[in-house]
Write a structure and sequence with these properties.
It contains 26 helices and three strands. The protein has about 525 residues and is mostly helical. The protein folds into four domains: about 200 residues, MFS general substrate transporter like domains (Growth Hormone, Chain: A, Up-down Bundle), CATH 1.20.1250.20; about 45 residues, GTP Cyclohydrolase I, Chain A, domain 1, CATH 1.10.286; about 190 residues, MFS general substrate transporter like domains (Growth Hormone, Chain: A, Up-down Bundle), CATH 1.20.1250.20; about 60 residues, no CATH class. A three-stranded antiparallel sheet has the order 2-1-3. The model has no long low-confidence stretch (mean pLDDT about 85).
Length: about 525
């Protein structure tokens, strides 16, 4: 690897750390939500909003981060993201009440939305064409890596809380575990800020601001001088050509000629979220606790979710240009449907009964006495059992001891739940996860591509926020069985659409696709 390639790779890796922070910030909540709900005495809908609020703000940030970066520069806004991530991590970790916790989590949404747009944008603007695909993929890979590391970090902090070491006691990790889970993000955020100090300003942005000499100097760090001069001229020509073009408005998307391509984009955007992926990423320990394995084991299994997501995302990157987009989508969505039905079956087959022996093994004497009246009483599903616990103990106390009481009463095969979740994540990571964005870049005609991707991306984020918001309520109200069965039914409906409507875009020119799809 020559010196310039090495420099380009280093800069891309630094900038892609924004993707890592985005993934970490979005999924660290999975280990936090149970403790936050108990500490702040939240309803299921309040908990859902505390999780989904970040996605709502991120969607808004995506719409304003592009124009802001055009005005102030990509690097400046990315530095602001690093500062925002730091403030959000520390603020939410130290929040004394739910209102402040929510405000700091929503602040983090600005960092998530902006970095999702700007990190790959900057990398694409500095990367030579022959390296662009590989370097831009660093950002997606780092998002997945950030999600995985958040699961590891959450489990490590939970485990530390059980240590008798003096320093663990002094730091209050046991009683403040969820605060430490959130606070550790400040470390990579600070590292990101200082790393960005070594990153040059975007050459394309410099050319937009008529700083041609500086743009040429920056480009010379990534390629030879002759190529740098050519690139400056090419960008200038492109910018001049754009001046005479009429600005594309959102209404263009709804013209009859674009009906098919917009329908495909919207269905895939909705399908990616309506099948429940962010329910799993943001509530993984809570889901595993419903199978009766306990809190510690649920955090361990959440790590498997992160690792599976990472491995199959890499596999998708290797296969997407070999097998094609449609086969990966069809295979993955079919698998999502199958594994969601498996999850529904696993929870449907569960029964709940507290025996005298199980009650006697509970750690709290007062709790043993209170639930003693349930000895020998059977419940057919989780909703009936949890409602009985709420009536007996009160909503707050029932939530505190929910994991322990489910573990004591449940009769089911928890391996079905683990296989179902891992299989679902694997199928998603090899299909809807990465393939959706590739499809969007290929389906929409060039003249409306920017507006179209922004629109369907916003719809995707809105559906994601809705799924996250109602998930805790769904578990409490309709139960695990129906929640996962609904996700599976959406997947099978999406599979029919993919087979019948979605075209294969592999190996076809953008012009050829436009001629076929824009009628």
């Amino acid at each position: 690897m020559d010196k310039k390639t090495l420099f380009t790779t280093r800069i891309a890796l630094i900038v892609a750390l924004g993707g890592f922070l985005m993934g970490f910030d979005a999924s660290v909540i999975s280990g936090v939500n149970k403790f936050v709900q108990i500490d702040f005495n939240l309803t299921d809908l309040e908990l859902g909003f505390s999780v989904s609020s970040l996605t709502i703000i991120a969607a808004l940030a995506m719409m304003i981060s592009g124009p802001l970066s055009d005005r102030f520069g990509r690097r400046v806004i990315l530095k602001a993201c690093a500062i925002i991530f730091t403030i959000s991590a520390v603020g939410s970790a130290m929040a004394p009440n739910f209102t402040l916790f929510l405000i700091f989590r929503m602040l983090g949404g600005f960092g998530v939305g902006a970095s999702l747009i700007l990190a790959p944008m900057y990398i694409a603007e500095i990367a030579p064409p022959e390296q662009r695909g590989r370097l831009v993929s660093f950002n997606q890979l780092n998002i997945v890596l950030g999600i995985t590391v958040a699961f590891f970090s959450n489990y490590y902090i939970l485990s530390l809380g059980e240590s008798t070491s003096a320093w663990v006691q002094d730091l209050g990790i046991a009683e403040n575990n969820w605060r430490w889970m959130l606070g550790v993000e400040a470390a990579p955020a600070v590292l990101y800020f200082f790393g960005l100090l070594t990153v040059p300003r975007s050459p394309r942005w410099l050319i937009m601001k008529q700083k041609l000499d500086e743009a040429t100097t920056v480009l010379c760090k990534f390629c030879d001088k002759e190529q740098a001069v050519k690139d400056v001229r090419a960008v200038q020509t492109s910018l001049e050509a754009d001046k005479g073009k009429k600005k594309v408005v959102l209404a263009e998307l709804f013209k009859p000629a674009l009906r098919l391509v917009l329908t495909i984009g919207l269905v895939i955007a909705v399908l990616q979220q309506i099948t429940g992926i962010n329910s799993v990423f943001f509530y993984a320990p809570m889901i595993f606790e419903q199978s009766g394995i306990g809190t510690d084991a649920s955090f361990i299994q959440a790590i498997l979710v992160g690792v599976t997501n990472l491995v199959f995302t890499i596999l998708a990157m290797l296969l997407i240009d070999r097998l094609g987009r449609k086969p990966l989508l069809a295979f993955g969505v079919a698998g999502i449907g199958v594994f969601m039905v498996l999850l529904a079956y696993g929870f449907h087959s569960a029964s709940y009964e507290l025996t005298q022996e199980k009650i006697g093994a509970l750690g709290n004497a007062e709790l043993r006495q209170e639930v003693g009246v349930l000895a020998g009483k059977s419940f057919e599903n989780d909703v009936q059992y949890k409602n009985e616990l709420k009536a007996l103990l009160g909503a707050e106390k029932a939530k505190i001891y929910e994991s322990e009481l489910i573990t004591a009463a449940i009769n089911m095969n928890p391996m079905l739940i683990l296989v179902g979740i891992i299989g679902f994540v694997a199928c998603f990571a090899i299909s809807l996860g990465p393939v959706m964005w590739v499809l969007f870049s290929e389906l929409f005609p060039l003249k409306i591509k920017g507006v179209a991707i922004s629109f369907v991306g916003f719809v995707n984020s809105a559906v994601s926020a809705g799924v996250q918001f109602i998930f805790p309520w769904e578990l409490s109200t309709i139960g695990s069985t129906w929640t996962f069965l609904i996700y599976g039914l959406f997947a099978f409906a999406g599979l029919v659409f993919i087979i019948r409507v979605v075209p294969e875009t592999k190996g076809r020119s953008l012009e050829e696709l436009e001629a076929e799809l824009v009628r």
